[in-house]
Amino acid sequence: MSTKPEPSRRFSVAPMMEWTDRHDRFFLRLISAEALLYTEMVTAPAIIHGKRDFLLGFDEAEHPVAIQLGGSERAQLAEAARIAEGYGYDEINLNVGCPSDRVQSGRFGACLMKEPDLVADCIAAMRDAVSVPVTVKCRIGVDDQDPREALPALIEKARAAGCKTFIVHARKAWLDGLSPKENRTVPPLDYDLVYEMKRTFPDLEICLNGGVTSLDETQEHLAQVDGVMMGRMAYERPYVLAQVDRRLFGATAPVKSREEIIHAFLPYIAKRLEDGVTLHAMTRHILGLFQGVPGARAWRRHISENAYKKGADISVVTEALSKIHTSAPHDALGSDDKRVEA
User: Fold this and answer.
1) How far, in Å, CA of 339 to CA of 20, rounded?
2) Is the Cα torsion angle 228, 229, 233, 239 positive or negative in sign?
3) Structurally, how many domains does the chain consist of?
4) Which positions are annotated as active-site residues?
5) Of 9, 78, 233, 279, which alpha carbon lies 20 to 30 A from 20's?
6) How far is residue 74's CA from residue 125's CA, in Å, rounded to a whole number?
7) Same structural domain, 160 and 217
8) Domain annotation covers residue 193
9) What is the pLDDT of residues 171-226, one digit of tens each?
10) What angle do CA 23, 318, 277 make, to 5 degrees?
11) pTM of the predicted model, to two decimals?
């Protein structure tokens, strides 16, 4: 059995398709040493039959890092979990919340909210296959389900199968009538129901996801639940993570400035360029770092216009950095910085 400590889920960054790839995770780790990072969802068949090093490879600096699996076939999920554990992931997470057309056609993601027995079977199979934690990320319900019945029913079944951690996106998913993008914003949030699940299942780790935009909000939620997962805000304004270690984990290390983060990222960019990765594949993740700072628009424009060019190298980033006029006091930001670029 594994002896490495279980990762803290007090604060995590959500799995986001086409966003939280290995380059983004390495970048975010430079900002916060403590936040738990998640991969994009990877389907079990892709891991079993696809290019594993491409799908599963990551830098050791990314720890703690969890992989999110998509699927509904217990044997495939167990095998994929076993393979992922072999790559060193700290947690295996089952996607029971994605509402895209792709997951509907494959009978996984949010569709599984309707099949709690199947979820339990999949959890049991994965737990038998690995020694790292197996967790669930779900919605509060789908379509015409009553969330106050559907969510506890799912949790009860998965708990019986050995799952101890649930990350709950506090919205319903509408599989018919709303696009995946609309499903992130249109269904109303029900934080109180997630709080209620913690009171109902005090033995379980209940984490909240959905609509969280600041560390002030995060701390308010942490009075009611065990952890908070932040999504789009952590990607679009990544410097929100700068205060995570101090405010949520009691760290005493100095907070890095935005410039320090970029300089720390440059060696990684250079190394990956040598490996054949395109500059744009990495720099697309850093565009929002200077949001709210004078010169941020010029930073974004310079990178966006030049990172695609043949032979583009780290000089694109250093030249963009020269367009930042002044850095805001980094020890005062990172949570609820509401300033707008002049």
Assistant:
1) 26
2) positive
3) 2
4) 98
5) 78
6) 6
7) yes
8) yes
9) 998 877 656 666 566 678 999 999 999 999 999 999 999 999 999 999 999 999 99
10) 30
11) 0.92
